[in-house]
Design goal:
This protein has 211 residues and is mainly α. 68% of the residues lie in helices and 0% in strands. It has ten helices and no strands. α2 packs across α5 and α6 packs antiparallel against α8. The termini are far apart. The N terminus and C terminus are likely disordered.
């Protein structure tokens, strides 16, 4: 009984003030771009300077370089996955899926640019990819189920098969010259996903003549 009374519950961390939250978000945004463009050699001083804060502010939010790398990667992943619901609210499910594909390619390009920094993180025992597949599968499943329910996408395709296809295509988008070709390949993939889908209730596009 005395042992239970002696135990002290750690207080919950206080929520960040609005200005501190803005600083943290800005640091993550700048870090993701810097790691993608300059690799693991970019300095924390440079990241802090571009974010408009002092190095002390950076260390208050991220005690180590590895914490910042992981936060930057997870932010990119969360932005992509959260966009699925937003895209579904903005338009028909097949258009939402096609727009999400573009976001996936951008995410993979950023991830590839961060690969050296991520490998350095993994070498220290970190696991930035622990929830990646689950989150990505959940996002594309949400999009695909909405498309099949609306009769706009075929129902005999596993969402994970689409994710594997996108991953393979993204490996080819290594230079700016490949981006136009990538758009054509994504359109071709969407045509395959629509092929023999039940007729949905989607209205014709405004510039499509009525038959």
């Amino acid at each position: 009984m005395q042992q239970e009374e002696d135990q002290v519950t750690a207080p919950a961390p206080r929520p960040l003030r609005a200005d501190a939250r803005r600083n943290r978000d800005r640091l993550i945004e700048v870090a993701a771009r810097a790691f993608a463009q300059d690799g693991p050699d970019v300095t924390l001083d440079a990241i802090a300077k571009e974010a408009g804060v002092g190095i002390g502010t950076l260390y208050r939010h991220f005690a180590t370089r590895e914490e910042l790398v992981e936060a930057a990667y997870r932010s990119e992943l969360a932005t992509l996955c959260d966009s699925a619901s937003e895209l579904l609210e903005a338009g028909p499910p097949d258009a939402a899926l096609r727009a999400w594909m573009d976001g996936f390619v951008r995410y993979m390009t950023t991830k590839r640019g961060m690969s050296d920094a991520l490998r350095a993180l993994i070498a220290t025992g970190g696991d930035p990819f622990s929830r990646s597949r689950t989150m990505l599968t959940g996002a594309i499943t949400e999009l695909f189920r909405a498309g099949t329910a609306a009769g706009l996408l075929r129902a005999d395709i596993e969402p994970e098969d689409v994710l594997f296809s996108l991953s393979g295509l993204s490996l080819a988008a290594t230079t700016p010259e490949h981006h136009a070709r990538m758009a054509r390949l994504l359109d071709l993939l969407m045509d395959g996903l629509r092929y023999q889908a039940p007729s949905g209730s989607r209205a014709p596009d405004a510039d499509t003549p009525a038959v």
